[in-house]
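Hello Y.,

Per our agreement to keep a running log of every chain we model this quarter, I'm adding this entry. I've kept the format consistent with earlier entries: sequence first, then predicted structure.
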Amino acid sequence: MHDPTTTAEIARLRERIDAVDTRLAELLEQRALLAARVQRLKPVGYFAGRDADREHGLVRRMAEHAPRLGADRLAAIMNRVITAGLSAAREEADRGR
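Predicted structure for the entry above:
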């Protein structure tokens, strides 16, 4: 079992992680809303309109700010973020029809 100091430190760090996760969720929601607006404006949108060059550039820029994760891990994360956002935008558009 951990000593009380370690247990308290773990609790403090987990509170900070929870706060970051909340901010991350809010940012992901903002990103999804912005991406949905872009998709409505593009002549070819949603999954057919993905721009691989733009996505690679995005990952490179993000890797500069998150070197611990690196480009490969960030590419996997952002692929899921983009896919989820496009899926949500498509569902929203289908409901609006």
